[in-house]
Amino acid sequence: MTAVGQRHPMLDGALKATGALAYAADLAIDGLVHGAVLTSPHAHARVLDLDARAALADPAVLGVFWHANMPAHRYNSAVWFEGQVAPEDETMFPATPRHIGDRVAVVVATSMAAAEAALDRIAVRYEELPPCLTPEEADRARGPVFAEDGTPTFLNPIDELDFLRGDPDAGLARAAAVVETWVTTPKTHHCAVEPHVAIALPEADGRIRVLSPNQSVHATQVVVARALGLPARDIHVVKTPIGGSFGGKAEPILEPIAAELARRLARPVRLAYDRRRTFTSTRMRASARVRIRTGFDAGGRILARETETLIDIGAYITGGNWLPGSMLQRHVRLYAIPAERYRGRAVYTNTPPTGAFRGYGSPQINAAGEIHLDIAAARMGHDPVALRLANAVGPGAIEPYSGLDVGNARLRECIAEGAAAFGWAARRAAPTGPGRLRRGVGMAAAAHINGCYPGSDEATTMTLALRPDGRVRMVSALHDLGCGSNTTLAQIAAEVLGVTPASLEIVEADTDLCGYDLGTRASRMTYAQGEATRRTALALGEAMRTAAGLVLNRGAGDLVCEGGAVRDRDGGARLGFAELARELGRAAIALPAATLTHTATANPSSHAAHFAAVTVDALTGRVRVTDYLAVHDIGRAINPMLVEGQIHGGVQIGIGMALFEDVANDPVSGRMEGRSLARYILANSLEMPPVAVRLIEAGEPTGPFGAKAVGEIATIPVAAAVVNAVNHALGSELTHLPLVPERVLAALGEG
């Protein structure tokens, strides 16, 4: 292998490192005007009147727009494709804002400073309404989610899912031990370096072009069109480079407003949120309260499990109605359990809406399940590693919820090899320490999906074409989120075509240029789009050999693509790609190209086992993670360096979820306490331990060159591994995340 399996740097890495890469906020567009959004100071209120006269007195202000003079088409910002049916409860500017930070109005001015200043001169008269601020309270406000005329009622649950497999009651009845726990996970924010921004401008043909750092140009196109009441073809979406997303830019938030303003004013409009609005007015990870009750036999085999989840999805549905099923699917992919009962409920609250965040339900349900399993192990006197090995799924297991084959699942290898490399047995047996500094080790396992199959939208179209300069152009719905997925795809194509990854010309996603793809989500880029790339590259290679055969007077079967050229298999005649392009041009023969649509036919699991060592200060309650090992069933690492980078980033997010991160919406006022980077505590470089990575590369037959995903699963087991280490150090049963010092001290006091 010359490209696959190699540690290639990201193709745009130098541009990013030198500051030369232009992000959306850097774009200079003639005639650009700026919008600033006024947001609600109330958790629930009705807008009775808005007086904009003082704002409009400034000649730099071009207009003030709110629900009275903007479209009121309802939409769901989480739809993926045209024709998709989803519950629609959101408008650009609601007459009744449903959370602090909800959109009330937008000012457009010739400068951002003038627009921001005008916000202070708008007088809004509100009628405050009673808010519902906790999921427990929301769960009692029951009724139909939509009235007969389709109007949202904002009653609950917005979705409820029940699943039954086998006879859990019988399994629990014959169990040698039954363990029940409640685990609570917080609402956490993406904290991408780049805040939310969108630019829209009218095009000469009457369409509106939207430029934004998004995760799916086709989803953005559909959402914007629905919000404006236009056909999707009237919206042209171009992805700009992304300065971090982690799921936060999966849904269009500012794009519909920017598009309508560009249409209304007939000039380019830029909308951008500052950091506070990015916290209070975009999306975040849903919080969950999870009850698990499990029955075990004397040897630690799981006989039956009951799980109940209550999920706080915030003020609008977005994709929250999918969360109960999403959590269930990940929950039942990890262990072989003969009897399961699951009930999941998602509820509205008057807090900021939630959405995708690196795992879409997996980090919450995994934290609950893996913390529960460690508590069970401690109560029964079992080793946590042995308990997991006794129940782990193996290759070819059938996931009971969707009936999918989990593929070449190497969970057991992750656990066993990780335990050996971490020195688990010796570390676990070592004294935790009776003094101020307590030491402990913990571990957790995880499973995650590779794409959205069997969803009908799980297809991607790729075009590869030889250019006159000999480079190969790659055109698809490419949505690199900053993690190097374009580099990974280029390596796959380069391996097939016998070129270097740098010789590919990559065209970012543009609805005018690329066929449909649902975007970067669900850990599908390497697995699904990577396989589309491999197959398209094979087709292009065949076309290039056929074309070169015309020039060299050889049969296509006698030629190979290698070293940036087409040559004889016996090492004779050779034609460089640039030379081939010139010769075909002289002969007026079209340059070779290939377009292929690949639809996934499987959805295997990626697996992981993570191991953490911690030190807990019994005086201050502070926890420090001192050592970390992540072992991943990756199938085949296309680029080991980028895989390791993903895992390091995932560990950082997971440590934050375990110990620090919580937007902390006040349960009385609804005010977000963690609404800035000064108030919202992240795991920064000083809090990060040394992170070792081991990869299990056993291959996945349905993935490109055997590859599986790592992007989301990298963060999924982390929180539980850290919490389990803390519980080991203290002999506690902490289950309320994050483990801030006061919760740790409370556990010590109870002990």
Report on this model:
It is globular and about 85 Å long. It is built from 19 helices and 25 strands. The strands form six sheets. It has a seven-stranded mixed β-sheet with strand order 3-4-1-11-8-9-10, with helices on both faces. The protein has three domains: about 180 residues, Alpha-Beta Complex (Aldehyde Oxidoreductase, domain 3); about 300 residues, Aldehyde Oxidoreductase, domain 4 (2-Layer Sandwich), CATH 3.30.365.10; about 150 residues, 2-Layer Sandwich (Aldehyde Oxidoreductase, domain 4). The longest helix is centred in the last third of the chain and has 28 residues. Strand 13, helix 9 and strand 14 form a beta-alpha-beta unit. The chain is an alpha+beta fold.
For the largest beta sheet, what order do the strands appear in spatially?
A: 3-4-1-11-8-9-10
CATH topology group of the largest domain: Aldehyde Oxidoreductase, domain 4
- Mean residue pLDDT: 96
**CATH uppermost class of the largest domain:** Alpha Beta
Helix content: 25-40%
What is the architecture of the largest domain at the second tier of CATH?
2-Layer Sandwich
Profile the largest sheet: 7 strands, mixed
CATH superfamily of the largest domain: Aldehyde oxidase/xanthine dehydrogenase, molybdopterin binding domain
Number of domains: 3
β-strand number: 25
Rounded to the nearest angstrom, the distance between the terminal CA atoms is: 57 Å
The coarse overall form would be globular
Report the structural category.
alpha+beta
Using only C-alpha atoms, the radius of gyration works out to 27 Å
Poorly predicted regions are none
Strand content: 15-25%
Number of helices: 19
